[in-house]
Amino acid sequence: MIQRLPRDLLYTAYEKHLLAELDRSRLPHHVAVLADGNRRWAKTNAPGQMLEAGYRAGAAKLKEFAGWCDELGLEVVTLWVLSTENLKRSEQDEVLPLLDIIVSLVQDLASHPSWAVQVVGALDLLPDEPAAALRRAAEASAGRQGMHINVAVSYGGRHELRDAFRSLLAEQAATGVTLEELAATLEMDQIASHLYTAGQPDPDLIIRTSGEQRLSGFLMWQSAHSEFYFHEALWPDFRRVDFLRALRSFTQRERRFGR
């Protein structure tokens, strides 16, 4: 009789197989993730409970995901946790508990001794107290030399480009450059230097969960040459083996960078 192995042992064996297959020299430098599906997960897995259950499960998975990335030596990770559209369509009594969870998430990430955490987004759209708490947590981790984690809070791609152009125009005006002169000389590098992620490598790989196959404005400028990986799992159900599959897919692709 053939003995069936426990599922956990099978997953562990498969993870080891995937790790052995990975070409470490071709791993991405920057991975970004749209952690989608927390609300749907809560409706299925925590019926009758507040949707906070889904957000908490999603935050726990984000911390786990950051650990996976660090174990593999990835340099930059971007986690999108709250969009500007979420702020517009959500009720205040839903947003405030979610912000509490996000603040705790950022504080936990920033408590890691080697991770540098940066909050990217239009924080001026948030209530003062959580916005200040997010800034404090990120500032406490500044200057660390390990993995860099961007947490996109109150983030929208159009808002980022708007803010970049506002910053660029203000900078140029302060040096006496006219609009006509700027229009004649403006280069792409100047715009990139005013993005939330200025100075960072663009994402090599963008992962979105929950079966949605669109970017929804995520890193609109930075994703011009990114590779995309879409997965059916709701974010709290996303496993390490799923991440390794995404990395394997990435390492097997021929990147052309628009050429």
Plain-language structure description:
By secondary structure, the chain is of the alpha/beta class. It has a domain at 28-156 and 202-250: Undecaprenyl pyrophosphate synthetase (3-Layer(aba) Sandwich), CATH 3.40.1180.10. Helices cover 47% and strands 13% of the residues. It has helices at 7-21, 38-45, 52-71, 84-89, 92-110, 128-140, 157-174, 179-185, 188-192, 240-251; strands at 30-34, 76-83, 116-120, 148-155, 205-208, 227-230. The protein has a six-stranded parallel sheet, sandwiched between helices. Strand 3 (116-120), helix 6 (128-140) and strand 4 form a beta-alpha-beta unit.
The H-level CATH homologous superfamily of the domain at 28-156 and 202-250, spelled out, is Decaprenyl diphosphate synthase-like
Mean pLDDT: 91
Low-confidence stretches: none
CATH class of the domain at 28-156 and 202-250: Alpha Beta
Number of helices: 10
Task: Strand order, main sheet: write it out.
Answer: 3-4-2-1-5-6
Overall geometry: globular
Supply the helix-strand structural class.
alpha/beta
Major sheet, described briefly?
Answer: 6 strands, parallel
